[in-house]
Design goal:
By secondary structure, this protein is mostly helical. The chain is globular, with a radius of gyration of 29 Å.
Length: 152
């Protein structure tokens, strides 16, 4: 018995282990490649989305809205982080038909309307949620303005 055990060191098990090791060594490389490619695709899509947002903002919003702060040259509030302040659904509804929100008595819409000297914002019912998000994403890329230091 001892001789047969010594002469047969189970070579099949070693081959199986090598095949498994080779297989598992390839899998992480494939996963890494897929992850890296998907990051590039996402970055490209993000870049394209920002370009779309900039184009739409420049065409439809810039004449009345500042990106990051309220100043005397714009009619209404800055739009940076508007989704966080108001919520996505509110922003969509306001952009699509702010007059409907005003008519419903929405307090936020009424306040914004009054702050804009009762001049209603143009409505943009043809903008999609993705396009509105692209505008907001573009605006949110700008640095937040620093608060003015208090004078002593």
């Amino acid at each position: 018995m001892n001789a047969s055990v010594v002469n047969n060191p189970k070579p099949k098990e070693k081959k199986v282990k090598k095949k498994c090791n080779t297989y598992f060594m390839r899998v992480p490389k494939i996963i890494i490649i897929v992850v890296l490619l998907s990051k590039n695709i996402i970055a490209q899509k993000s870049s394209d989305k920002l370009k779309i947002g900039k184009a739409i903002f420049t065409t439809n919003c810039a004449s009345c809205h500042s990106l990051t702060k309220r100043d005397g040259t714009v009619m209404s509030e800055p739009l940076q982080y508007i989704r966080e302040r108001r919520g996505k659904e509110y922003v969509y509804q306001f952009v699509w038909n702010n007059m409907k929100l005003l008519a419903s008595g929405n307090k936020t819409a009424l306040r914004v309307y009054n702050e804009a000297k009762k001049i209603p914002m143009n409505v943009f019912p043809s903008l999609t949620k993705d396009e509105i998000d692209a505008i907001c994403d573009y605006i949110d890329t700008f640095p937040t303005p620093k608060k003015e230091e208090k004078k002593k």
